[in-house]
Amino acid sequence: MDERDIRELLEQVTSRRLSVPRALERLRHLPFEDLGFAKIDHHRALRQGHPEVIFGQGKSPAQVAAIVRGMLRPVGGRHNILITRAGARIFAAVRRTLPRRMRDAAKFHPLSGAIVVRRNREITGKGAILIVCAGTSDIPVAEEAEVTAAALSNRVETLYDVGVAGLHRLMQHRKMLTSARVIICIAGMEGALPSVVGGLVAVPVIAVPTSTGYGASFGGLTALLGMLNSCASNVSVVNIDNGFGAACVASAINRL
Fold first, then answer.
1. Which of 123, 152, 194, 197 fits 251 for a cystine, CB–CB 3.0-4.6 Å?
2. pTM over cut 0.85
3. Is the same domain home to 86 and 178?
């Protein structure tokens, strides 16, 4: 539910197209709905511009399906539903809980474990979010960022396998880099790519360290520290493997 949904509801009541009791029924579960094991924040879109996202890891398929069912109920019904860090069993449960007419709108992205129930294809971001990925092994994190940014109504472009081991692969895409409004830069190993990208562009670069690498990468800690110490002044950093968080920040910037 967002401001547009509330406005539409009030206009329907004012024009007598919707009765007061039916309007109250639609508002019954606001601002949040208590399922016992979860509290669905139906006001999230009104406050932050995008609805609550379900973190699938650690939840049972039945729990995720129940949360999705609850997110389908309130006013409006236009927002996309995003589930991160899920699996095939959760996707099957979610698809079963959807009305038959909506099942084809649900898509599972196995590399990242993201599930999207696409109900709105409107683009509200002002420009393109470009996702730059250092290596093929980093693509699962890049896909999470890509799916999240698209679900949040942004135009998304991707540039994969352009790490510093072959810098010429990046340099041939200068036009893409300079035309983006926000860049998400994803790298493992020593985490050098965001500094290079940051030095080429005048827009925010959100760096995502990944856990890709050998022993001394310490599960992404080396890349994280390298990115935090970047000499490029337009680079900021999110947590290890957090493509979702990077996409949320990029989306917020892209709406400004």
1. 152
2. yes
3. no
